[in-house]
Design a protein that fits this description.
- By secondary structure, the protein is an alpha/beta fold.
- Helices cover about 45% and strands about 15% of the residues.
- It is built from 16 helices and 11 strands.
- The strands form 2 sheets. It has a 7-stranded parallel beta sheet with strand order 4-3-2-1-5-6-7, with helices on both faces.
- Helix 6 packs parallel to helix 10, helix 6 (about 125-140) runs antiparallel to helix 16 (about 370-385) and helix 14 packs antiparallel against helix 15.
- The two termini are about 40 Å apart.
- The structure holds NADPH dihydro-nicotinamide-adenine-dinucleotide phosphate (NDP).
């Protein structure tokens, strides 16, 4: 029986993970569930999964959860705040931590899981973008296992030789081809982009996801963050990661070898496939995802990304090239700008402008500790908020 701590249980990845867990009650048990504020939804999940621990990072919501669960005969202890998230990530007896909190808020608990030597199923790409070397060092020092569930990185993981996923030269890898759908604005008239709404940006053509990653997919910042994530996960330089637009989202990414072979992983765009692959690795079990019908699909298409339409992409390459705190600065600025766009405070095109401005204004510094990474994140948030004339740094 694999005991799971699910960080970000009320989100889109959380929902897909619990769907897979419920299909295999003989294999998986839920030991901890966490969320931010959605106490009613978390209470419902506690009644279904009966975890040992439930955490809400918002302390007021945690009080409401505790009241809602009182007297129901559940084995669940309610914890609050960031320390509660860290406790859930390090819980004794837990084998697997699914890191599915959105944004920088997921970094401390994911690093704690690494330090505790857990098997980490990583969805929270922002943690790796901000933490980079610090995060990978914690994984190594803690003896943790990192399995990607971001669909692209899971595809790459499946296409690399087992046990040698961080040795591109030794295994004959020439390039990683990271596929991207191009999002909802791939063919939109450029002149219309400043006026697009949050609802339009969140209407992803192929994937159903949380609002933040949906906007990131529209701007293709998501692909930039994924390029940085791939760099850290697979120990490959950015010059050997090519981004290819593939609007059907059937090929989830590819690995090109020096002999000319290109290996790809294909499937329906449904997060239950990568989640199941990582949960059951190295076995294969049923995920609930329907079979791919290639004859019905007929054709798969590809194109190069247009940097004028997607200015966040070159910003991500520039940030990784600058090194140190630059990726954390980019991510912090993006989180502020996306939240402001979703709240209707800024225009869509201001997102990339704010990110560029923060990277120009704040010089990159070395990042040696978690505190260095979080400090850069705070600095970027304050700078982006001030440049965008937002009331407070969120
Ligand atoms: P959602 O917005 O759907 O869910 C986010 C989860 O994180 C919720 O449980 C939310 O709790 C919790 N959360 C939000 N803010 C905080 C905080 N400050 N502290 C603690 N917990 C918090 O996001 P997704 O599931 O879409 O994405 C999660 C992560 O997975 C992201 O990093 C994303 O990039 C990555 N990912 C997502 C994919 C997808 O298909 N959705 C695909 C690949 C990667 P509450 O509900 O209470 O707010």
């Amino acid at each position: 029986m694999q005991k799971i701590a699910l960080l970000g249980a009320t989100g889109s990845i959380g929902e897909s993970t619990l769907d897979v867990v419920l299909r295999h009650p003989d294999r998986f048990a839920v030991a901890a569930l966490t969320a931010h504020r959605q106490w009613e939804k978390l209470a419902e999940l506690c009644r279904t999964h009966r975890p040992e621990v439930a955490v809400l990072s918002d302390p007021r919501a945690a009080i409401l959860l505790e009241r809602a669960l009182a007297g129901q005969g559940l084995p669940t202890r309610v914890l609050a705040g960031e320390s509660g998230l860290v406790d859930a990530a390090m819980l004794d007896g837990v084998d697997t931590v699914v890191a599915a909190i959105v944004g920088a808020a997921g970094l401390p608990s994911t690093i704690a899981a690494a330090a505790a030597g857990k098997r980490i199923l990583l969805a929270n790409k922002e943690a790796l973008v901000i933490g980079g070397a610090v995060f990978m060092a914690a994984v190594e020092k803690g003896g943790a296992t990192l399995l990607p569930i971001d669909s692209e990185h899971n595809a790459i993981f499946q296409c690399l030789p087992r046990g040698a996923t961080r040795d591109p030269d030794g295994t004959g890898v020439r390039r990683i081809l990271l596929t991207a759908s191009g999002g909802p604005f791939r063919t939109r008239d450029l002149a219309e982009l400043p006026g697009v709404t949050a609802a339009e940006a969140c209407a992803h053509p192929n994937w159903v996801m949380g609002r933040k990653i949906s906007v990131d997919s529209a701007t293709m910042m998501n692909k930039g963050l994924e390029m940085i994530e791939a760099h850290w996960l697979f120990n490959i330089p950015p010059q050997r990661i090519e981004i290819v637009i593939h609007p059907e989202s059937v090929i989830h990414s590819m690995v090109e070898y020096v002999d000319g072979s290109v290996l790809a992983e294909l499937g329906h765009p449904d997060m239950r496939t990568p989640i199941t692959q990582a949960l059951s690795f190295p076995d294969r079990i049923e995920s609930g995802v329907r079979a791919l019908d290639l004859v019905h699909l007929r054709s798969l298409t590809f194109e190069a990304p247009d940097h004028q339409r997607f200015p966040c992409l070159p910003l991500a390459y520039a940030a990784l090239d600058a090194g140190g705190s630059a990726p954390a600065l980019l991510n912090g600025a993006n989180e502020i700008a996306v939240a402001a766009f979703l709240a209707g405070r800024i225009r869509y095109t201001d997102i990339a402008r704010a990110c560029a401005e923060v990277l120009t204004r704040i010089p990159a510094c070395p990042v040696a500790t978690l505190e260095d990474a979080l400090g850069a994140d705070r600095e970027a948030r304050a700078c982006a908020s001030s440049w965008l004339k937002l009331p407070i740094a969120a």
